[in-house]
Amino acid sequence: MPPEPAPSTRRVVSPLDHRLEAATGYDIDTLWAYRDRGVLDEPHAQLVDRHRELANAQISVTFYLRLLSRLSSGEFDVDSALFTRIDRTVDQLQEAAAARDAAAGKVLAALEPIEAAAAASAPDAWQLSPDDQAALLAIAGGAKLYEHLLTGRMSVTAASGTRIPHARLQQLEDAGLVVRDTGHPVHAGQPVALTDAGRAALAAARRSATVQALKVPARPGASPSSPAQRR
Description:
56% helix; 5-stranded antiparallel sheet; disordered C terminus
């Protein structure tokens, strides 16, 4: 994949977002931007298409949730007409939730092969230190290496504002995880991007952290949550 486009407002669609980002090494907005530019391979393009369907389905769920909240807010007279509207809205919300769940299933079907490929290509990614992971994540959002004109000191500035020491950049370069575009002068800023190995390493490390988080035991005495049933 090419270097990251300029960062934009972070898009949050579903609980699956973190898995897409972990498997690909890109955030959701970057993936959508790549799809619009036609630079994704077929598996990733299909994944983004399914994710957009999930986004649209989630919009419908949110709409009916807000409508139901408004109907029950006390704004309207409590009469048979209100009960009818509430019942109709609940039915529409159930249909929207079913459509969202179906869309989420399609996202998972497209995502799981990509997750498996990422895990196979980076078996030692778990050895990354937390600082390495943070640096790779910052670089994934766009970064440049600058040389200060007066002091001659060099450091990486990420689009997020994060600064990465030059020594750490050299370590990541030596490991084959990042690459600089040396066609640009350092004083003007040399773009720094993740290599395929860097994306795979970051994806595996983030996925491992997610798995560990999911394994955290529930608080003693807490009961598992279950969907509310309509009476």
